[in-house]
Design goal:
The complex is a heterodimer of chains A (113) and B (114). With 113 residues, chain A is mainly β. The termini of chain A are far apart. The mean pLDDT of chain A is 94. Chain B is mainly β and 114 residues long. In chain B, strands 2, 4, 5, 9, 12 and 13 form a six-stranded mixed beta sheet that branches. Chain B is globular. The mean pLDDT of chain B is 94. Classes of the chains: A mainly beta (113), B mainly beta (114).
Chain lengths: 113, 114
């Protein structure tokens, strides 16, 4: 998985609780992304980062926040989890310059009850 | 914004046959088109990609074609094998300051029958 780990790999939480998912890379890549995958929707971009402390929104950012204090770590936080946020979450990384390719981590399956 | 349509949603072929998956995109500014293979319980794996300045790209049994005028691109897998069975996703993006924001199709579940 291209030097990407995600933690936890599985989580069950209750509605209204805060949840933080972690993406860690060993590639020293500049760009990092969070996607969610739901049946019938493919993968959709939540937030991305183009450097330490530099982040921006994707197409489905409502209810999510992110932080990147180190090059290797990109955190996704659900401030108050809802059942609609039950999904599989994938982190991806991309190098800088003329590289276009994004490489994905193994995913985190989150269930909100 | 960009919209990517992918067809078919499911595809079943016999081992040794060819498989073709098609995608269309809406934004003529898109310039990068990757294809991912996802096996059950795993993350998407990049298998081939094409940039807008190229019409076709091949890697062993896999090829991708791009028609910019019609705004569609296709994945071709020849001599299919059971291990090709997976869900395949197409995506499109445009370069914006180096960050590629991929927009994905909804996926095609390919089954290769022995």
């Amino acid at each position: 998985d291209a030097g990407i780990t995600q933690s936890p790999r599985h989580k069950v939480t209750e509605t209204g609780t805060p949840v933080t998912l972690r993406c860690h890379q060993t590639e020293n890549h500049r760009y990092m992304y969070w996607y969610r995958q739901d049946p019938g929707h493919g993968l959709r971009l939540i937030h991305y980062s183009y450097g330490v402390k530099d982040t921006d929104k994707g197409e489905v950012s409502d209810g999510y926040s992110v932080s990147r204090s180190k090059t290797e770590d990109f955190l996704l936080t659900l401030e108050s989890a809802t059942s609609s946020q039950t999904s599989v979450y994938f982190c991806a990384i991309k190098g800088g310059g003329e590289t276009y390719e994004q490489y994905f981590g193994p995913g985190t399956r989150l269930t909100v009850t | 914004g960009e919209n990517v349509e992918q067809h078919p949603s499911t595809l079943s072929v016999q081992e040794g046959d060819s498989a073709v998956i098609k995608c269309t995109y809406s934004d003529s500014a898109s310039n990068y088109f990757p294809w991912y293979k996802q096996e059950l319980g795993k993350g998407p794996q990049l298998i081939i990609d094409i940039r807008s300045n190229v019409g076709e790209k091949k890697d062993q049994r896999i090829a991708v074609t791009l028609n910019k005028t019609a705004k569609h691109f296709s994945l071709h897998i020849t001599e299919t094998q059971p291990e090709d069975s997976a869900v395949y996703f197409c995506a499109a993006s445009q370069t914006q300051g180096g960050s590629e924001k991929l927009v994905f199709g909804k996926g095609t579940k390919l089954t290769v029958n022995p």
